[in-house]
């Protein structure tokens, strides 16, 4: 029987799977609930300003990076502006600058903490060496956790002697390695690392898997990019490729039910349309599955996936602003993190990521203006009543604006547009129940062999997205899309 694949959800994971399969010659239909492609890396427009929904920093676009491999395979190059200075990290009492060059980056840390020079250099040496070894597995890209004999065999064949160096730290956290280097009590340094990790790993240095943290802290040095227009350009190019290779794209199609008739999957959408397929790729938040699958199907899902259905993740409050940068001392830098206190608190506006369009990026804003997104993590239970919801939106918005004002003089005076993306907004526009974003924290309990596989446990039903290994961010969801495409095609695409 010829394959006919239905991909549900046009986030980066679903688009990656669909575009690779279509290029490979498989018949593909992709359904998207909203009016835009890209999911959390999509876009929306207000008046003359274009805003990225969520993701803004281009990663994995360096030579042989995950996204670069995808777009090279699709023959769809992206315009890129490489960043030598990746971002500023503003903390109470000191500001760090994340530099692409590893030596310059470490030298800067030593200048901040000269009495810890030996320990800092040994720590970063271990980080970079570990990441270098882990990256050698990104070439073959074995699936974790392996779920079939073929995947186990491919994993074993991917191992080399150098990978044995990872075994002593395989089950360790970054916090344990910091203690080994006598840096666990260096609070300002650790808090800076926590700020980097909460955005990429959804947790802090105390709990994050060391192997994944090493890659997360090193990958900025491999290449970070500003993508003119925004990361939605990745979504647009993959959508173009799908059409060019005979695929079908349908927006504003919300799938309400999935059922099986023998070896065929049947999907129904909210308009009453039905779609038949041999294989399904679900690129939706896994918390949606109980509303799409029958209870008996839920019971057949793999145990880690079933457990994840009722496990909450982070929510977020995002500010979408347009500013007249002529009222500022200088235009805003493209990427900046701000922590307004030195405690371990990294949510509810005490720590946030701020990105701005480059001056002259006229797809984002007219001459003299920049569009800005500001996003913080937040705990879902703090938004669960209308009274709490309204109070949280007001409080967190003010907290972030105040912190920016203290860093950027005249910032409020420069604002010409401001709106908020609170959890209900994320739920409405991206289909994320309760506004959950980012996937699960990459702790030892959730990562690597303990993560959720792209195999659902139901025949020919595959998963991609930020809840599937290796987790959140555009790179993580693209990897899960690659694994789904490989499983369906039976070929090592890429």
Automatic annotation (TrEMBL):
Top-level taxonomic group: Bacteria
Record SUPFAM superfamilies? FAD/NAD(P)-binding domain
Q: Which residues form the signal peptide?
A: none
Amine oxidase domain spans which residues?
Answer: 12-488
Stored Pfam families:
Amino_oxidase (PF01593)
Report what the protein is called.
Answer: NAD(P)/FAD-dependent oxidoreductase
Annotated organism of origin: Planococcus shixiaomingii
């Amino acid at each position: 029987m010829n394959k006919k694949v239905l991909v549900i959800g046009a986030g980066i994971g679903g688009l990656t799977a669909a575009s690779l399969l279509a290029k490979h010659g498989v018949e593909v239909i992709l359904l998207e609930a909203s009016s835009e492609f890209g999911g959390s890396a999509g876009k929306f427009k207000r008046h003359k300003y274009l805003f990225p929904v969520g993701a803004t920093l281009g990663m994995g676009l360096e030579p042989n990076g995950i996204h670069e491999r995808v777009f090279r395979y699709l023959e769809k190059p992206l315009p890129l502006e490489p960043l030598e200075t990746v971002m500023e990290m503003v903390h109470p009492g000191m500001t760090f600058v994340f530099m692409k060059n590893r030596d310059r980056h470490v030298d800067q840390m030593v200048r901040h903490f000269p009495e810890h020079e030996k320990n800092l250099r040994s720590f970063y040496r271990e980080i970079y060496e570990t990441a270098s070894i882990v990256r050698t597995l990104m070439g073959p890209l074995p699936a974790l956790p392996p779920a079939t004999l073929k995947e186990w065999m491919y994993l074993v064949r991917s191992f080399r002697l150098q990978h044995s160096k990872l075994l002593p730290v395989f089950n360790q956290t970054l916090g344990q390695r910091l203690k080994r280097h006598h840096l666990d009590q260096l609070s300002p340094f650790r808090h800076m690392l926590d700020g980097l990790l909460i955005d990429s790993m959804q947790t802090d240095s105390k709990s994050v898997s060391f192997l994944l943290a090493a890659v997360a802290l090193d990958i900025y040095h491999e290449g970070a990019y500003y993508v003119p227009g925004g990361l939605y350009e990745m979504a647009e190019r993959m959508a173009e490729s799908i059409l060019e290779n005979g695929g079908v794209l349908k927006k504003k199609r919300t799938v309400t039910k999935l059922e099986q008739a023998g070896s065929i999957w049947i999907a129904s959408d909210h308009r009453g349309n039905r779609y038949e397929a041999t294989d399904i790729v679900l690129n939706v938040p896994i918390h949606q599955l109980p509303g799409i699958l029958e209870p008996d199907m839920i019971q057949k899902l793999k145990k880690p996936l079933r457990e994840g259905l009722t496990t909450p993740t982070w929510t977020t409050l995002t500010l979408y602003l347009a500013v007249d940068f002529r009222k500022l001392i200088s235009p805003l830098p493209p990427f900046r993190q701000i922590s307004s206190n030195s405690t371990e608190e990294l949510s509810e506006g005490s720590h946030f990521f701020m990105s701005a369009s480059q001056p002259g990026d006229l797809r984002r804003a007219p001459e003299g203006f920049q569009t800005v997104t500001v996003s913080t993590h937040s705990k879902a239970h703090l938004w669960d009543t209308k009274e709490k919801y309204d109070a949280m939106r007001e409080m967190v918005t003010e907290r972030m604006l105040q912190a920016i004002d203290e860093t950027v003089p005249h910032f409020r005076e420069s604002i010409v547009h401001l709106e908020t993306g609170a959890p209900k907004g994320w739920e409405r526009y991206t289909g994320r129940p309760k506004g959950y974003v980012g996937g699960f924290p990459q702790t030892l309990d959730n990562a690597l062999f303990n993560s959720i596989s792209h195999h659902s446990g139901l025949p020919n039903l595959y998963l991609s997205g930020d809840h599937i290994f290796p987790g959140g961010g555009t790179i993580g969801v693209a990897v899960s899309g690659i694994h789904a495409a490989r499983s369906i095609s039976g070929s090592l695409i890429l």
